[in-house]
Specification:
With 545 residues, the protein is an alpha/beta fold. It has four domains: 150 residues, Rossmann fold; 214 residues, tm_1862 like domain (pyruvate-formate lyase- activating enzyme, Alpha-Beta Horseshoe), CATH 3.80.30.20; 76 residues, no CATH class; 58 residues. Helices cover 33% and strands 19% of the residues. The protein contains 18 helices and 21 strands. The strands form five sheets. A seven-stranded mixed sheet has the order 2-1-3-4-5-6-7. The chain has a six-stranded parallel sheet with strand order 8-11-12-13-14-15. The longest helix has 18 residues.
Length: 545
């Protein structure tokens, strides 16, 4: 029996855990020949289909999610046309809802799987060519020969510890810049927009097993680990144990966690404060800073506690905390999104992510969309088109606002200056966005240098009080001192003053100095030193005179 897995991702930086997670349970079955075709959604679907067909597999399997859905259907339909005898089974978050319509609209798919497949997928493989036995496979959805729809419910693995780790599979991809480590399944929270909302019980791996898996990951030289845990701190004692474990691998590894800021106990705060710098990167689930919105979304945790927790996390200099907002949530207005971004910027969030709501299959919000007044696209990625509170034009504004944040605030070189602009007054963010839209600067990607020039030009017209900061940001980003943002910088034959206050670095005579005056006479200003003998393009020394 020959089974081929189509590994279709958004980019080559990503990889799915599904294949190694399933294959790990079947490594001892020598009757199966496993193959895989890896590609991205940007590649030619015809080429991908041809490569799959060259193997002439008995079974084709794949994980489908909202961003690869369209490309996957094109690929599978082509394959099925060329080798109609092959059996196609699909799984993934796309099939957490009602699957009957999907199967009737896509007859080239033989069956889909709802839920967690490590236990049930091997059972299906034992009877894949005998549909009469499919009724016993929990989670399987399919149309029988007489076109009757069969739905076998939802598959859940209750004991995670009895599963073989995906890292044991030969298909686990060790070539990516990071790996994913699943430590729990399920979520204590009940968010109506999330596929894990209300998924109970929350199932966990023991600390000992997690240690074994991290040890394997460390042995492969992996430095970045994304911990797949919907709410890392849902259990305070467990969170503290994990933090202790992570510290064992500092400074060789960095862990990315999702944390609920409303659930930060004093005990956990102390533990976080004591961690070494660079060990953690945190994603703080905020979604909205409006109590009615959060209540409508059925999100657990009080807003006041969430804000206090976020402010605490963002105040820590030993880690970076990112925050997210979701445009299109019920009761959430555009003007509130602008205000919330200002609040997050004032907290000095490491990044601010603004995403449009997507009504995912199987979520409560999708089931109740009509009652909530939400209009959404019926096709992946199921993006909200309008609500009672935000219309289509305003949602487009929110999308452009998201691009602004990614281009400027979420870029370390320009974050400080962008934050100053955002916090200048209550309308400054709107004004900056209008400026970028008018200049059509958000329609296409911009280089780091181009973004720096845009900021400088904007400040020169509307915020001359920030021009100094704009130039400092430009210099420290390692940009050319011959370009406009450095127009006041003096580079030739600069001699250090008798006294200066060192901000960072160590001065030595070999450094190439430049001077940025802060007064008209040029008596005071900032000094920057560049090392010619190393690859670093930014300054290694900064002082003020």
């Amino acid at each position: 029996m020959k089974i081929l897995w189509i590994d279709l991702n958004s980019s080559y930086a990503h990889s799915s855990l599904a294949l190694p997670a399933l294959h790990a349970q079947l490594t001892e079955d020598e009757a199966m020949e496993w193959y895989t075709v890896s590609a991205t959604i940007n590649e030619n679907v015809g080429n991908i289909a041809s490569e799959v067909c060259s193997h002439h597999p008995d079974i084709i399997a794949a994980t489908v999610w909202l961003f690869n859905h369209e490309a996957m259907m094109h690929i599978i339909s082509r394959i099925k046309a060329m080798i109609p005898e092959t059996c196609v089974i699909l799984g993934g978050p796309e099939f957490l809802g009602d699957n009957e319509n999907f199967l009737r609209c896509n007859p080239f798919v033989n069956c889909v799987f709802r839920g967690e497949g490590e236990e049930q997928f091997p059972r299906w493989l034992s009877c894949w060519n005998n549909q009469e036995q499919w009724t016993n496979i929990t989670g399987l959805c399919y149309l029988s020969a007489d076109q009757q729809y069969h739905d076998n419910g939802l598959a859940r693995v209750l004991d995670l510890e009895q599963l073989k780790a995906p890292e044991k599979s030969r298909f686990f991809n060790w070539q990516k810049p990071f790996v994913q480590l699943e430590t729990t399944r399920g979520c204590f929270n009940t968010c109506a927009f999330c596929v894990s909302g209300g998924e109970k019980p929350v199932r966990t791996l023991s600390i000992d097993i997690i240690r074994q898996r991290i040890e394997t990951i460390h042995a492969h030289g992996i430095k970045d680990v994304r911990v797949l845990d919907r709410t890392f701190n849902f259990n305070i004692n467990r969170a503290k144990e994990l933090l202790k474990l992570f510290q064992e691998y500092h400074p060789h590894m960095r862990f990315h966690l999702e944390i609920h800021p409303a659930l930060l106990s004093n005990e956990l705060k102390e533990a976080l404060k004591g961690l070494p710098k660079g060990l953690l990167h945190l994603e703080a689930g905020i979604q909205s800073l409006r109590e009615p919105v959060l209540e409508k979304c059925q999100r657990v945790g009080k807003l006041k506690a969430a804000l206090e927790g976020l402010e605490f996390l963002c105040s820590l200099d030993n880690m970076e905390t990112h925050a997210d907002l979701i445009a299109g949530l019920p009761l959430y207005h555009l003007y509130e999104i602008f205000e919330d971004i200002q609040t997050l910027a004032s907290c000095e969030a490491g990044e601010i992510q603004l995403e449009a709501l997507k009504l995912l299959p199987g979520t409560a919000m999708r089931r109740n969309a009509k009652d909530l007044g939400i209009c959404y696209s019926p096709l992946p990625p199921y993006e909200v088109l309008q609500t009672r509170e935000i219309n289509a034009k305003e949602l487009q504004t929110a999308r452009l606002l998201s691009r602004l944040l990614d281009a400027f605030y979420n870029t370390p070189a320009w974050q400080k200056l962008t934050r100053m602009i955002i916090l200048h007054n209550n309308v400054s963010l709107q004004h900056f966005l209008d400026y970028l839209i008018e200049k059509k600067l958000l329609d296409y990607p911009m280089s780091l240098e181009r973004r720096g020039i845009v900021l400088y030009e904007y400040c020169k017209i509307y915020h001359p009080e920030y021009l100094l900061e704009a130039t400092i940001a430009w210099i420290e980003a390692g940009m050319s001192l011959k370009k406009q943002p450095a127009e006041r910088v003096k580079t030739k034959h600069q001699t250090p003053p008798e006294q200066w206050n060192v901000i960072y670095g160590d001065y030595k005579d070999s450094l190439r100095l430049c001077f940025l005056p802060t007064d008209e006479k040029g008596l005071h200003g900032y000094w920057f030193g560049f090392e010619s003998e190393i690859q670093k393009i930014g300054p290694v020394f900064k002082a003020r005179s």
